[in-house]
# Entry
Amino acid sequence: MTYASFTNLPASTKPQARSVDSGRAVPAGISRHHLAVLLILSASTEFLLVALAAYSAAVLYHLILQGSPDAPKYIQESLLIATLQLLASLWLRQYSRIQTQPRHVFLWSGASSVLFVFSFFISTIFLLKISDGFSRAVVIAQAVSVLFAVLCTRAVWFSVLQPAIASGLIDARRIILIGSPGHCSQFAARALATGIRTIRSFDFPANPAGISAVTGPGAVQALPDIRQLVANCRPLRADDIVILTSEQDVRSALALASALSDLPVDVHVVPVGSIDLMAVSRITQFGNMVTMRIFQCPLNPFNRALKRAFDVVAAIACLAVVSPLFLIVPIAIKLDSRGPVLFRQTRHGYNNEPIRVLKFRTMTVMEDGDSFRPVVRHDPRVTRLGRFLRHSNIDELPQLFNVLAGNMSLVGPRPHATSQNETFAELISSFSRRHNVKPGITGWAQVNGYRGDTDTLEKMQRRVEHDLYYIDNWSLALDLKIMIMTLISRKVYWNAY
# Structure
């Protein structure tokens, strides 16, 4: 169906999509067409830049170290690498998933495809016994330059496309809803937040022979049967049809989904009242069965090993840099007040297991367990030197030894005293999820200003929200970002007393 014929449909069947920014009625097909064009442009741009990066790396290597390069050979090789990268990305559907993936997942998928391409390329030239014509240093330089080109290209396109999808300038997907008007309205509002547009909704049939179409407030049109519903859905050219079913209508929903399979769309069934549950669940293969996984362990074994290796290397580097402070600060503490240099406090770590956290002593008391009282602004228990150590975060440096010991990480939810944990765990249902990863010296909540006194439930809830965001969106890049923000962000020092 052409766009002209689509706009000439009768008013009762013509869908209307409204742009978020201007409020003008916009034919839904236009935004969909634009998204396809932009995805093609992003793939084409990446192909050209990958070829240019591979060729430039080879040419620069030869010009600097070996003289004139074999230009025709490297042109062919660069085009081959770019083609393999394009095919791998298309095969893994990486470009289309920009609609639904967070930035770090989209970038990581690009990096993994580069690794696959060069592994395949090196294996192929080795098996064909033509590897003598390729310098190992050149191939490594090409891999690095191609990786940089892919990450930069995808970062730019993500920054362009994702905000446009979120604001409604581009429709990620166009859906038809079948269910009660109230449930359809709620689902449509949630879908709109991710750029998914509802172009029409229909009442769920009370029986297979009765369906009424909802085309607007108060506009209800009787339809004879399910076949007519299918006929009305067909010209709308939707991407998905979502059936919002109640518990008693599950069997009818399956029959309705079977009838809707005649349309070239994805058909979804969502139990009403379980949208929040479905939002966090995944259908997975479990042995020879299929299950709905609600939550998963935040870090798989590979990610745990990667994070642990990063912690050890970075902690050793940090200790080498700040080692003079481990001589200066203890002397200053001894001169400032009586008591030990280090303070050991019991806190909850991974899986709620108790750990002993090290800190430079900043107070005149050594409170722990049930006797612990949180520090407040102008707290008389804090020493003069302690205020400086706490405000500058120097008092946390001994926790680098906790990191090396393996009971803490450089980045993660900050550990609380056990008495605090027990109190807030009873008030905030998801509080203990913070301990599904190792606690950190710094964290996402801290670099966003949520540290210090938690004298209200709302303050702790905001801290927990940021901690859970970190757990659900962990990546090595996010850890690096948090560490950099810890050094340069002013928010890190808010409420540090």
Summary: Residues 447 and 490 are 8 Å apart (CA to CA). The chain has 17 helices and 14 strands. The chain has a mean pLDDT of 79.
